[in-house]
Amino acid sequence: MSNTKLIFLDIDGTLNVSGKNISQPVIKALLQAQKNGHKIFISTGRLKSSISESVKSIPFNGGIFSAGRHLIVDGKIIVDEYMSPQIVQQIQKLFRALKIKQSIETPYGAYVDWYSNKWSVSYDEWQQLTKIIGGPKRYNIEEYQNNPTYKIVFIADSKECADRVADSIQKIAITNNFTNLSTVIFGRMIKDLPLIIGEISDSTINKGTALIEICKYYNVSIQNTIAFGDSMNDASIIKQAGLGIAMANSELELLKIADKICDSVENDGIVDAFKQLNLI
Which end of the chain has less neighbouring CB within 10 Å, N or C? Predict the structure, then answer.
């Protein structure tokens, strides 16, 4: 496998425009890269159960799900790690006090509390947001009974609100000696939708650590890995990969740490990057 590259691809904002299907030119490039001997992997913060049919139709060699906490390679579960129940309970208490909307993401699906539309957005935008965050397997949060939890996603109506939540999470971490608790705040997931997404998980397990596990599985050097992403939950794998590539539409902080920048997702940047790297 000396010439084989392991290629890791985020979904929303990288493989496809959020809420839309992967374009045919990108699908063709992925399949050609595989035909040329390379291996391709999903690298997403999403639950496996929330992956769209468009993505499922592509024969990926494996996938990093739940931001690294659930890892599948060649049909085998390699990593399946959960948050501490004590941490989850503390966060629940905080979110109830702050009235923050959230999604508790578990192996069974997402337990959410946004069945009512709290914000002044259109119905179509609301439906799109719930598809992106919760996926098809969504349950009322009242049904959550301390199930094993991969991560917690929250929704804020402004960047300032999201920052306040992150500060409160940090205080919980310090007070309870949860040294590995991490909060990642994204830019807007849907263009012109004034909502900010945050993601809470264990910082010791992420997309970057998942990449290392896959390299061990195939006995491939990290130098033979390429990672594509567009948001800050891709930062760990962009830093860890032999070559970390940010989409032109990426968040500013990710653009700063990437080794290379390719064209935007709207312009099928993956295709041009694959050609430049002689993957196809």
Answer: N
pTM for this structure? 0.89
DSSP-assigned letters across all residues of 9-21: E-TBTTTB-TTSP
pLDDT score, position 115:
53
CA–CA distances in Å: residue 246 to residues 97, 125, 243: 37, 26, 10
* Nearest by Cα to 165 from 179, 148, 152, 147: 152
Residue 274 clears pLDDT 80, i.e. is over it = yes
**What are the beta bridge partners of residue 12?**
16
Amino acid 104 reads I
Residue that is written with structure tokens 């965050």 in the block: 133
Q: How far is CA 221 from CA 12, 13, 72, 226, in A?
A: 27, 27, 19, 11
Q: Give mean pLDDT, residues 136-140.
A: 74
Please, are residues 91 and 172 in contact by the beta-carbon 8 Å criterion? yes
Cβ neighbors of 260 (< 8 A, separation 6 or more) are: 243, 244, 245, 246, 273
- Pick from 232, 132, 248: nearest CA to 187: 232
Starting at the edge strand found earlier in the chain, the sheet holding 196-202 runs: 138-140, 109-112, 101-106, 151-156, 196-202, 181-185
25 phi, psi to nearest 5 deg: -60, -35
The structure tokens listed for 65 are: 């799900």
Q: How far apart are CA 259 and CA 239, in angstroms?
A: 8
Asked if residue 180 lies in contact with residue 95, where contact means CB atoms within 8 angstroms, the answer is: no
